[in-house]
Design brief:
Pfam families: PhaG_MnhG_YufB
Number of helices: 5
GO molecular function: sodium:proton antiporter activity
Order of helices and strands: HHHHH
Protein name: Multisubunit potassium/proton antiporter PhaG subunit
Number of domains: 1
Keywords: Membrane, Transmembrane, Transmembrane helix
Number of strands: 0
Largest sheet: none
């Protein structure tokens, strides 16, 4: 395997691993469900993407042609993670899960829960 491919694969794995570590740490440390949604949907999705890109490059080199399985997995994750986070947030709103006191825009939660259009403030 050429040295430049090894460097690209290593860098992609390192970046993916760092994002996965940050996402895992955020999932464990963030205090409420509304804040925890950011960790798996942003950092972990980017981390898995980095690992799968490295795998796609490695498998493409071994097979001699473009390996699209990893690309399809990455595409599926990038599409489904935001949808899953949206469904989790809607469930938390439906069950009236209380956010922390310092969470911003809490006044909009009732309007969102009742599917009303939030009123714009006249500043």
């Amino acid at each position: 395997m050429p040295f430049y491919l090894e460097i690209i694969i290593c860098v992609s794995l390192l970046i993916g691993g760092i994002f996965l570590l940050i996402g895992s740490y955020g999932l464990a440390r963030l205090p409420d469900i509304y804040m925890r949604l950011h960790s798996p949907t942003k950092a972990s999705t980017l981390g898995i993407t980095g690992v799968l890109v490295a795998s796609m490059i490695f498998q493409s080199h071994l097979k001699g042609f473009l390996s699209i399985q990893e690309f399809l997995i990455t595409l599926f994750l990038l599409i489904t993670a935001p949808v899953a986070a949206n469904m989790i947030a809607k469930t938390a709103l439906h069950y009236r899960t209380k956010p922390l006191e310092k969470t911003q825009n809490q006044e909009l939660m009732e309007a969102i829960r009742d599917r009303e259009t939030p009123k714009q403030s006249q500043d």
